[in-house]
Design brief:
The protein has 344 residues and is an alpha/beta fold. Helix content is 27%, strand content 14%. The chain has 10 helices and 9 strands. The longest helix has 16 residues.
């Protein structure tokens, strides 16, 4: 039996993927209290709210049973490494040390398997390669893959780094499930969703809720074509910042998705029309919170907000946008299961 502890678990995308592949997840750790409800409600796995820098590795070690294969899984916050980060990287400097906390837990527990998921830009940073060297010194075989999520049925142009460390040998990533020329599309994923107007919430699913557009943004989205950019607009509609020399480098904001292509990479602000190519292909609004969750391959009944709490765009958007796409979590789980068949 494979047992896992999910560090930086978020709303549970990786955990749910592992569970679906038969891995027993024992606990999820995250500093964000908003993660507790979706993580525990949907996965029936205990959630531990904490800063990983403060976690005693002995506590993690005690979670594992005496028998079985142990996995430490994690996705350290990617903002320091992401091309979508805003502002000075000094804001995130302290988060670079989270990989060190992850390493310390691995060092104490000595699990048979380790897996890490993050943005591919992580490979450009010293902290990542120090992490890799440290695990190799512990006796692990390291293997890593830059994954095009479209090849695993995820309807997004999203590229991620997936890495494995094993005490037994090199872990091979499970073969892709979807050829490059037949990706899952926006149409296949969200076209069935009930129609919404800007600012409206569906009566039967409160996560199917669209942010409200102001008068100017309503004018902008009404003249936007799927796949087009704000460069096609009348000058009166173009934001002042985009008329500057630097603004010309951001053509993908204020755009509509295309029905018959995958969505762009979802960010934590995907519910805003001006934050990327997050406009609905036909309706004059940004995609809803639920539509974003579907594009992240969460099941349609996955709950993110306690029924007694209000749905807040910034909080729920962060949970969904930061999540490991569930189907990528399943690919990780399959890879580990196949790997262990050669050794147990």
């Amino acid at each position: 039996m494979l047992y896992a502890v999910d560090l930086f678990c978020g709303a549970g995308g990786l955990t749910r993927g592992l569970l679906d592949e038969g891995v027993q997840v024992l606990a999820g750790y995250d500093i964000d209290p908003a993660c507790r409800y979706p993580y525990e409600y949907n996965n029936e796995v205990p959630f531990v709210e904490c800063d990983l820098m403060d976690v005693d590795p002995r506590e993690v070690d005690r979670l594992f049973p005496q028998d079985g294969i142990r996995i430490i899984a994690g996705c350290a916050p990617c903002q320091p490494y992401s091309i979508y980060s805003r502002g000075s990287k000094r804001v995130y400097e302290d988060r670079w040390h989270l990989l060190g906390a992850f390493r310390d837990i691995v060092d104490y527990v000595s699990p048979e398997l380790v897996t890490l998921e993050n943005v591919r830009q992580l490979r450009k940073h010293h902290s990542y390669w120090q992490f890799v060297r440290d695990l190799k010194r512990m006796g692990y075989r390291w293997s890593e893959y830059v994954v095009d999520c479209r090849q695993y049925g995820i309807p997004q142009s999203r590229t991620r780094l997936v890495a494995f460390a094993s005490m037994f040998g090199s872990v091979q990533l499970t073969p892709s499930t979807h050829p490059e020329d037949h990706p899952v599309t926006v149409r296949q994923t969200i076209s069935h969703m009930p129609t919404l107007r800007s600012g409206e919430e569906n009566s039967s699913d409160r996560l199917h809720k669209a942010s409200r557009l102001g008068d100017l943004n309503l004018k902008r989205i009404r003249v936007s074509r799927p796949g087009s950019t704000w460069r096609e607009w009348d000058k009166s509609l173009i934001a002042e910042c985009h008329n500057s020399e630097t603004g010309n480098t951001y053509p993908s904001v204020y755009g509509r998705m295309e029905w018959d292509r995958p969505a762009p990479t979802l960010t934590t602000q995907y519910f805003g029309f001006g934050n990327g190519r997050f406009g609905h292909p036909e309706q004059d609004r940004a995609i809803s919170l639920r539509e974003g969750a579907l594009l992240q391959t969460f099941p349609p009944d996955y709950e993110f907000v306690d029924p007694n709490e209000d749905v807040r765009f910034n909080v729920t958007g962060r949970l969904i946008g930061n999540a490991v796409p569930l189907l990528l979590g399943r690919a990780v789980g399959r890879s580990l299961n196949v790997h262990m068949k050669d050794y147990i």
